[in-house]
Amino acid sequence: MDPFKDEFLLATEIVISAGQYVRSAAKSQSQASESKECYADLVTEYDQKVEKMLMSAISEKFADHKFIAEEMSADGNSAAFTDEPTWIIDPIDGTTNFVHGFPAFAISVGFFHLQEPVFGIVYDIPNDKMYSAVKGKGAFCNGRLMKCSPTTELQEALIATEYGSQREPNFLKFKIDTMAKIVEKCHGIRSLGCATLNIIQVAMGTADAYYEFGPHIWDFAAAHLIALEAGAVCSAPNGSKMDLCSRKLMVCSTKELRDQLTPLIDDYQLARDC
User: Fold this and answer.
1) Mean pLDDT of 139-165
2) 208 counts as catalytic
3) Is 93 one of the annotated active-site residues of the chain?
4) pLDDT digits (tens, 9 = 90+) for 232-251
5) Is 90 a catalytic residue?
6) CA distance 237 to 259
7) CA angle 145, 146, 151 (to 5 degrees)
8) Residue-level pLDDT at 73
């Protein structure tokens, strides 16, 4: 990480600062929201302010770096994922939870170079937990090393997934049908309403696998590296190589578990992020 040590230190500092700002806003219990793609896809002034806060601090020090960020993309700016040093940012993943006061939302910052992850930082704001990983250096929660569970059998596994914010009937039916096939064979299914923190549960060993269709690159760019460094197997839901722009992914604690899940999950075509 040495070539990007300054970037990592800056990211840690500004994510903590932004998290404190969001936590103070959450205590006010009054977050006005607007919808983006549909009535279930929410954005607040805090999403927009935090994104600007993070991007401004980064640009001030690294003027030539690129960004892929949620609210920037919502404003119609295309996500260009290049070999240049690139920050992939979700200012508040789990905005609906934030609006309702449900304690599962996080700031996510991933840094990439040559389209490969260098480091990822996820700040679980309500629980004051900082998750981080540098490629090849392990995954940590508040400085303590994390490891995935050793679960290899689906019948012993706890699986995470989401309905997501899209409300197109065929897409919802696809998700519900897939959940039905999986829940028959595992301990249970959980949904936190936050893709980032679902992946973190796998990295912590408190869930054994996570899959989803529909999240965006900023929802999992940082967390997937943290999971990888905790020992997870990351792929497309069909078991092929993960494509960060495809809006579909699977994160499993073991290869054996992944191989039992993939036959239960059909494919669904989605518009790409980049």
Assistant:
1) 97
2) no
3) yes
4) 999 999 999 999 999 999 99
5) yes
6) 10
7) 145
8) 77
